[in-house]
Amino acid sequence: MTNMYASTPRSDAYDAIIVGSGPNGLAAAITLAQAEKSVLILEAAPTIGGGLRTLPWTQPGFLHDVCASIHALAPLSPFFQQLPPDKVPLEWVLPPLPCAHPLEDGRAAVLYPSWEETAAELGADAQVYRDLFEPLARHAGALFPAVLGPLRPPRRPMVMMNFGLRALRSAEGLARRFSGEAARALFAGMAAHSILPFDRALTGGVGLLLMLSAHAGGWPIARGGSQQVAQRLADYAESLGAEFVVNHRVVALDELPRTRVVLFDVTPRTALPIVAEAWPARYRRRLAKFRHGVGVTKVDWALDGPIPWLNPRCAEAGTVHVGGTFEEIAQAEAAPWRGVTAERPFVLVTQPSLFDPERAPPGKHTAWGYCHVPAGSAEATNKRIEAQVERYAPGFQKRIFARRITLATDWEAYNANYVGGDITGGTMDWRQAFARPALRWTPYSTPHPRLFFCSSSTPPGPGVHGMCGYHAAKAALDAIARWRLPCTRLE
């Protein structure tokens, strides 16, 4: 997809300039434009979207989502929920099953859209699952808006306390509630999205939140590819008067047109050289200490047919978690933090063409899988990834006729914000889950009253939800009104 945007700004003055056009930059642009502010979005790449890009990475006619494919949080995001459907015609496709987790001997643990149905198949762990998710699902409408934002006193304190007491725990601690292999493995795959060792605090919360999002929203994909989401958001922003400029890498504040505020949809490491001494030295030192996690290696596949899973339920799932038992996955996720890649890594597989035929020619399919590797790793782990899939889908490798391997080092070359292959905008451990990128009451603000962060390096962190951009834009609007910020050049 080619975006027909200008290469230079049309004006010399704007109310707000946004650096970067990922989902959070787009959300910030829309929120500001809805408030009738003039907005300029500057994107370094030839196309908009950040992690929302879709390209024919293996063969012509095979559409691969570069990063995000499964949009677990989009349907639950207050930002997406307030978009007018007639002006932002997003086409979501819901696979029959959000996720499946194959086990040995052709068995599989299944995450259904319904928590009741999920629990029913977990045998001795059925009641444990009910006790965990029934109260959370009942209050999901209040829970997700609170979780998808900065740390604030909750409007529903009992709901948040019920979730928080569990969410603060490690995956290892929460997994002890389950006695059966299926429930433990299913939970392990969810907790692995934290990209942290399982003995760390909050890893259990990541698993709970993802499972709950499946029960509340179903884990949709975007028809035609994730770039469609970016394009629909950009089209709406343009209809409100926002302006896009691509192939424009910002290197210094003084090159920008006059503006009231600037919002950075980038990581602290990317923003620091741009802002330079406009931020005080103490704040710059804090940003320089912002930590990034391990990287990922991803393999995109063009296939002669669907992945031949031993368990047919896996073919009904948009996402398949491949890695075996809880213990196997825990070992695999700890390895990159020790500087090595597991021999049997945990592999996250998506297979969108099963549910969206626009992704591949008739009779053909696309899929991708990725695993976690040490930060900055240049090691090709595609053979390990494919061996793991083959383990639960014999004959899979024979169906591959084209592949594209993206190493951790390739990710940072592709997008400077993916530091060392970290696609999450910074480690989401207990120290950086809420105080990101630095400890401030309004984490989107900075010591400079006209400069803001709106990227996944702010709460609530990674994911296609737009809430980092939404909250940052609200903070910028408040600053414009409160301080009557003039439209001037920044230095």
Write a brief caption for the model.
The protein is of the alpha/beta class.
Question: What characteristics describe this protein?
Answer:
491 residues, alpha/beta, FAD/NAD(P)-binding domain, Guanine Nucleotide Dissociation Inhibitor, domain 2, 7-stranded mixed β-sheet, 5-stranded parallel β-sheet, 16 helices, 16 strands
Could you explain how this protein is built, in words?
It is a single chain. This protein is α/β, with parallel strands linked by helices and 491 residues long. It has three domains: 13-52 and 65-69 and 225-290 and 424-483, FAD/NAD(P)-binding domain, CATH 3.50.50; 114-215, no CATH class; 292-414, Guanine Nucleotide Dissociation Inhibitor, domain 2, CATH 3.30.519. 32% of the residues lie in helices and 16% in strands. The protein contains 16 helices and 16 strands. The protein has helices at residues 23-34, 78-81, 115-120, 126-138, 140-147, 157-167, 171-175, 181-191, 203-217, 227-239, 268-275, 281-288, 326-334, 382-392, 408-414, 467-483; strands at residues 13-19, 39-42, 54-55, 64-65, 92-93, 97-102, 108-111, 221-222, 243-245, 258-264, 295-303, 317-322, 347-350, 365-373, 400-406, 451-453. The protein has a seven-stranded mixed sheet, with helices on both faces. Helix 8 packs across helix 9 and helix 8 packs parallel to helix 13. The longest helix is centred in the last third of the chain and has 17 residues, at 467-483. The mean pLDDT is 96.
